[in-house]
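Explain the record.
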Amino acid sequence: MHSSDDASRVDPPVARSYSRRSALILGGMGLGAAMAGGALFGATPSLADEPAVGAAAEPFEIVIAIYREGTLLDFAGPSDVFHRIPNTRVRFASLYGGPVSLEYGVVFGETMRLADVPKADLLLVPGGRDLREPMLPAFQEQLVRLGSGAKHITSVCTGSLPLAATGLLKGKRSACHWAFINQLARYGAIPDPQRFVSDDNGRFMSGGGVTSGIDFALRVAAVLRGKEASELAQLIIEYDPDPPLKSGHPRSAPPEILAMAEQRLPGATRGLAKIPGVS
């Protein structure tokens, strides 16, 4: 993984007279990498520098709370969308700050300390295969602090479990990965198997399993900046899914594949698979 500093060494492939937005619209994959590649790995403003009509003067503060053994795709997809909508600032924060070792040995670049983040307009908690760190009292305390003042409290995949453990989701409907979704009930949240779930007029928004993060983020983007901004982000990232197989959820997976999943994750077919950090 590379830090945001690496992006500064990429020569811009367009004339300086172009605005970033014009460049983004005109450019292809190479341009996206040059202009946006570093955005995922640091607390940088959105690519869209020009606020949309009616957008707030101050950037909308999006805080993504990450932790050891977290899943990169849970927040990489949403980050890519959020960086492409007008007038947003995306911050990555962790319990201790600095680099964070995610699952599969992926090391994510510099992060802020959660305790140093002054506020969040939108708090996002992604999921992971090991939730012991986000279940720590110190991590939970920061989720409560930031979430209590946030306009939107959100999660992707199993990120809803540590969020629910804080009590912030008590009595609220929430999505989660299908294999763990019914674990939400032990914390007073209401499990909802939909791919995207919104409660309390959009204050609480959540996505299901790992890949739902992009669907989730596009819906959030529409809430924050309108349908056109979300559609433009979708077009720029070429989000046009056409999966070669139809086995992405228990409702469509063949019985033999579902049985294999149950063997690997006992309790998964009842939404009660075990995950470290959830007793």
Notes: The chain is about 30% helix and 15% strand.
